[in-house]
Amino acid sequence: GIQVEQSPPDLILQEGANSTLRCNFSDSVNNLQWFHQNPWGQLINLFYIPSGTKQNGRLSATTVATERYSLLYISSSQTTDSGVYFCAVRAGGYQKVTFGTGTKLQVIP
Amino acid sequence: GAVVSQHPSWVICKSGTSVKIECRSLDFQATTMFWYRQFPKQSLMLMATSNEGSKATYEQGVEKDKFLINHASLTLSTLTVTSAHPEDSSFYICSASGAASGGYTDTQYFGPGTRLTVL
Q1: At B55, is the secondary structure helix, strand, or coil?
Q2: pLDDT, tens digit, for every residue of B28-46?
Q3: Which residues of B are less than 8 Å from A98 in CB distance?
Q4: Is A54 in CB contact (< 8 Å) with chain B?
Q5: Beta strands B44-51; B57-58: pairing state
Q6: According to the model, what pLDDT value does residue A22 have?
Q7: Shortest alpha-carbon distance between residue B62 and chain A (Å)
Q8: Which residues of chain B neighbour A103 with C-beta distances below 8 Å?
Q9: Are the C-beta atoms of residues B1 and B68 closer than 8 Å to each other?
Q10: Nearest CA-CA partner of B81 in B31, B28, B8, B25
């Protein structure tokens, strides 16, 4: 099956700093989403982005489908950005969704 | 829009009992629902995919007789953990996809999760 690797696995930032999270996948995908899992376990949709670039406030994401990676940019980080960030992909005509390994982000004041 | 609820949010049960977890899409019709399991500090592992009115498709290694999934309507799916044992203790999360307002039909929206502890 498709492999989805995220980097870095852990990241500590000073409040106000910028960061880039990466998601690599081993096969072509037709669906890619970024999620933020807060400390209580709730998964929050950030982007649906199988290709191209999108922005939402301090967050933006870019997926280069031909090169099989996606990037999530966080600018001017805040302590509330702390948590785990996952990308998840769907490949081919299958409904199965595969989650990446996750990046644990800690933003310190 | 695109709200998914899950009930209960946490449950503690004795070994050997069965536990039912409900997943509801509150403001859209979910043609497909997914059930995931997440162990501490790990990623989400897909257990099964269910389409309304059809039998669930289970991932390899997931016991269908132990984890019973029913998707009887476009807004409700249930996961029943039968004869639960301590090793079934985990965080169970459902998601729903469908024609939610303003979203793509295959976007997943997640419930808040259910923390199961089996004593």
Answers
A1: coil
A2: 888 889 999 999 889 999 9
A3: 46
A4: no
A5: antiparallel
A6: 98
A7: 14
A8: none
A9: no
A10: B8
